[in-house]
Amino acid sequence: MLADRTTTASSPTEWPTAYPRGYAVVDVETTGLARDDRIVSAAVYRLDGRGEVEDHWYTLVNPERDPGPVWIHGLTSEVLAGAPLFREVAEEFATRLAGRVLVAHNAVFDWQMIAREYARAEREAPVKQRLCTIALSKELRLPLPNHKLESLAAHFGVVQRRAHHALDDARVLAEAFRPSLRAAAAGGVRLPLHECRPLTEWNDRPAPLIGQQPSGPGVGGHGGYRPGGWRPSRKRPACPYPNPGRYEDGRRLKQGMRVAFSGDTSVDRELLEDRATEAGLHVATSISRLTSLLVTNDPDSGTSKVLKARQYGTPVLDEAAFGQLLRDVEPADG
Predict the structure, then answer these.
(1) Rounded CA gap, 4 and 158, in Å?
(2) Distance of CA 144 to the CA centre of its chain
(3) What whole-number distance in Å separates Cα of residue 167 and Cα of residue 28?
(4) What is the pTM of this model?
(5) The 3-state secondary structure of the chain, one letter per residue
(6) In this predicted model, what pLDDT tens digit does every residue of 87-133 receive, in sequence order?
(7) Which one of 38, 68, 155, 320 is most buried, counting C-beta atoms within 10 A?
(8) pLDDT tens digits for 177-215?
(9) Residue 302 to residues 156, 264, 266, 267: CA-CA distances in angstroms?
(10) Of 249, 245, 222, which is closest to residue 292 (Cα–Cα)?
């Protein structure tokens, strides 16, 4: 039986018409956190539009490599040796996700891991939107001591039996999401939905040599993100323009401005950073007194970058506003 402790006694009779019609509450356990890490287990709880559980599904996945932090997820090489490969469960996984909003705790991580696995299998995950329960708990202003899943579960009286087991984590999240969704509906809260864009950067063709322009069919997509493997991290060239100072509300961005990013973004973060670089902006990895602006969709998140931006008085923009400004960046002086 799902927990039902929330500030709202019962489900509102007038449900917001703009809310999604179904959700897929997901948890994946992985070999690590990097771009080339793999999924070792996955679980999905399918919920209807009001958060009622329809069914659930769980699978182990052979990562075709070392399982990583066994002390966290408990899945050894021996356990995973006979598990199906991701491409063998991709179709079943897709049927669980299709037509639903993907719900996860720190959803950008689960989404990116899933999207990369589908890209390796030369497929696209059928997910159009995702919802992060951390962001939803902030929208609801839940009095949580931190944003761990265990804290969200405790708030709603949900008992966690096996932490870091995909099926139990998905169950716990489904139980905590249901009263969160009801509270949001009762309060008319706009759900923090983000667009999910499938990755297009994986194929069997060799990556071009440094300095060589890619050519031929298939080039393009999201700025040409299509090497024969995950695009290696690379050092961006230094911005050739001087820093003109801080961004001023109502004015254009100017080449040379230092921009930093924090939190989840609808557009893939690296693509967003590349667009900023191509426009002549300096992409910074941290906040200082020289930072021109911070781009974040969650200005109340309390991350170190957001806190430093407040301390220094750095202007803050959301992703949508920043995207509009990128279309018309003022040239640098001279």
Answers:
(1) 9
(2) 21
(3) 9
(4) 0.65
(5) CCCCCCCCCCCCCCCCCCCCCEEEEEEEEECCCCCCCCEEEEEEEEEECCCCEEEEEEEECCCCCCCCCHHHHCCCHHHHCCCCCHHHHHHHHHHHHCCCEEEECCHHHHHHHHHHHHHHCCCCCCCCEEEEHHHHHHHCCCCCCCCCHHHHHHHCCCCCCCCCCHHHHHHHHHHHHHHHHHHHHHHCCCCCEEECCCCCCECCCCCCCCCCCCCCCCCCCCCCCCCECCCCCCCCCCCCCCCCCCCCCCCCCECCCEEEEECCCCCCHHHHHHHHHHCCCEEECCCCCCCCEEEECCCCCCCHHHHHHHHHCCCEECHHHHHHHHCCCECCCC
(6) 999 999 999 999 999 999 989 889 989 998 998 998 989 999 999 99
(7) 38
(8) 999 999 999 999 999 998 887 776 554 444 333 333 333
(9) 23, 13, 20, 22
(10) 245
The strand order across the sheet containing 258-262 reads 282-284, 258-262, 293-296, 316-317
Give me the amino acid identity at 301. S
In the chain, the amino acid numbered 262 is S
CA separation for the pair 59, 166 (Å, rounded): 9
